[in-house]
Amino acid sequence: MAHAERHPLGATLALALVGLVFVPLLPGLLWAMGPSLSASVWQALLTDPQFAQALLATLVSSLFGTLLACLMAAGLATRLYPSPAWQRLLQRLPLLLSVPHAAFAVGLFFLIAPSGWLARATGYFLSWASPPEWVTVQDPYGLSLALALAFKESWFLLWVLAGVLGEQAVARQMAVARSLGYSAAQTWRLVLWPQVAPRLGWPVAAAFAYSLSVVDMALILGPGNPPTLAVLTWHWLSNPDARLQAQGGAASMVLLALFSVSAALAYSGWRAWVQRRAYPTGQRLPAVQRPWPWQAPVLGVGYAALGALVVWSVAQSWFFPALWPDAVTWDNWRYADAAPFWTTLWLALAVSLLCLPVVLIWLEWGPKQLNAVLYAPLILPALPLVAAQYAVLLHLRLDASLLALVWSHLLWVLPYMLLTLVGAYRAFDARLMTSARALGCSQLQACLRVKWPLLLRPLLLAWAVGFAVSVAQYLPTLFAGGGRFATVTTEAVALSAGGSRQVLAVQALLQVLLPLAAFALAFSWVRLRRRNRLGLR
Hints:
globular; mainly alpha; 2 strands; two-stranded antiparallel ribbon
């Protein structure tokens, strides 16, 4: 019998806590999208001179970025797993995963801009006196944005793949297929990918949904006039004109429709391939070692972007085509505005610490069949959800308040923490709980004394992930906060539109350092607690 059935009070509490986050979205969607159902609004949207180009840039950046991310992640896994190089790759992933999207976009901008590090390296040897007239960032089709999304999402997909490939069943199948004489490429094509690929469906959908509605990265690397459809939608939704707000709601529906159609086509294509896939013929092919050129760039671009941020944050003056600043100074850090840092810190702490007990209560007593509903914010474009949140806050007159800001972040932090913790929770040995209950402990006492202490490492990892997700939130902070709360993310995006590169680099690095500190604290606390506890995971 399920926990929720044996403990109706626990199930009720779990539903009530999660309902506070999700249920207000239902009337919010009606209030936000209701005016957009008018035919005149859709006519205005479709005839808007910016709409067609914005839609094209969105399709190019999202589809190309997601496809390239899948190819890079799949290629690396196929080439490296299960060699020692695969383990070294996984050891380097956590640093890159903790880098927020906006901070990576800023670092990549410093690399590939016409006056960036790559152009400086070329111009230094070719004696260029001024930056070239290349359109390497903010191109009209969003190719630079697609490149940034591809690298950032490939790290996420590699992390998901690492979890799937770490299962013993997958390792055994690889070993059996290789012992039968199949090459590594054949084993992946005939045995592993048909089983692994379906489990990547939701992560790939989440990456594609984020690419469709990303605003912070699009403001930094995407086209300017017209921008991507997500940025255009954000401008319309933020406009005080009710007509343009309705047009923004209609554009949000377009983003949702694009996601739905693309997901349906991808699923249909996958099903057709599975049905037509030929069975193995039994023919063994020799293993062919081919050079794989993507391993270094997939990780190297991330480290190079971080390096560019570090150098710019201590640069006093740095003129083209010099490869290194003329002078190095700490003044950029000494005189940096600390208010966004402290706002981000308390907000991320409040949200992640609120979500952790809610996630634990849900996993222990909540109805598991509703997990898919909680994952919805991860696989849907963010703009319709943000608009619904804002409509609710306006009707309740809570916009631009601390409560509104915290509540707006919960919608994204809660699903990520649940996704991070659910695997470890399912793998927990239920016999330990049975023994604790047999010794007279209630279920809550057994959780407090046995299960949750043994799951300390996954719990702290989930908290660190929630902290990092809160730090990276841009749209919820702007809408719910009413522009009154500046975080390191909103400051970095605002400075990218025009300002001191040194100040921009400092704010972007602060955005990186906060999640890094959270992960370092989580791992340090685990090491401290498990020194004399062999069973602590």
